[in-house]
Amino acid sequence: MNWEKIGQVYNVNGKLPWASSHAMIPTPIALEDRIRVFFGTRGTNGKASISFVDLDINDPSQIIAEHDRPVLSHGQVGCFDDCGVLPGCLVKTEDRLLMYYVGFNVRNTVPYSNAIGVAESFDDGITFQRVYEGAVVDRTKDEPYFSVSPCVISDGKSWKMYYASCTEWISVNDKYEALYHIKMASSSDGFNWDRPNISCILPLKDDESNARPTVFIKDGIFHMYYSYRGSSDFRDGVDSYRLGYAISQDGEHWERKDSECGIGFSEDGWDSKMLAYPSVLEVGQSTYLFYNGNGFGQTGFGIAKMV
Fold it and tell me: Which residues, 6 or more positions from 254, have their beta carbon under 8 angstroms from its beta carbon?
């Protein structure tokens, strides 16, 4: 596949206390007359919340509205998301919009812990309410560390979730860094998940991590874009996030084809050092790739179009 970059489209302006920096993990959905893109943003208190911006459905480079408040903020003290939330994916059902999101806790021995929750909206995402105060995908006996970056696809009867599962914390320059790779779960209702510890995208080297899968089906083939990075110099260096690509015949067994990803770093500018957190959206005859550039979303998000 090949992508033509439209460019950087949106970033927060830093004028609001709940949105002082970052437009992370762009998570789009096509509505009748617009593309609504949810994103995670950091407040002056250091906690992340979720809001959205609306783009012209015929020209996604054009912003037509910005929401003026969070649609989901940090959870109750002691819950899995009491230190902040980030979007993961959206699923449109007959009567509501489901958002699978990531919650954060600050930890003592390691920097953080994540789990996956679900919220629902009955007004196309203007407001969300948690379905449960607790996580729907959390640590288990087989996955003892954390779960993050869900992508859920459903045909209305069966549900698949692709997500990143932490497999180990390693010490790099006297600091703990997480290793994680993409696994798969299934469900009959979207809330109770069977997790047989199936790995979909395995690291190509010992210190690689991959996450934020986005899966779509085209011509009967499952396609996945995702982020992958190293562990030694990934925040602003040679090991930073870039985009990977894989295909599958059945949605369970995947073949990495990163060289066929079709998009790479720009020579300079907002996405010259990092490509992260992709999300693919089909709108009519067009297919768009939303992603973050340098700084894990500190430079906002941009779009590329499949050609």
Answer: 200, 201, 222, 224, 246, 247, 248
**Rounded CA separation 160/198 (Å):** 12
Distance (Å, whole) CA 66 – CA 61: 14
Per residue in 234-263, pLDDT tens? 998 899 999 999 999 999 999 999 999 999
Structural tokens at position 285: 């005859």
Both tokens assigned to 68? 């003026």
**Which residues of the chain fall short of a pLDDT of 50?**
none
Distance between CA 37 and CA 174 in Å, rounded?
37
CA angle 297, 202, 212 (to 5 degrees): 25
pLDDT digits (tens, 9 = 90+) for 37-59: 999 999 988 899 999 999 999 99
Which long-range CB contacts under 8 A does 108-111 form with residues at least 24 apart? 109/176, 110/169, 110/176, 110/178, 111/176
Closest CA to 145 of 190, 98, 177, 185: 177
DSSP string, 248-271: ESSSSSEEE-GGG------SSSTT
Residue 296, classed as helix, strand or coil, is: helix
pTM of the model: 0.97
Which single residue is written with the structure tokens 């859920």?
152
Distance CA 18, CA 294 (A): 21
Q: Which residues pair with 216 in a beta bridge?
A: 223
Distance, CA of 271 to CA of 30 (rounded, Å) = 25
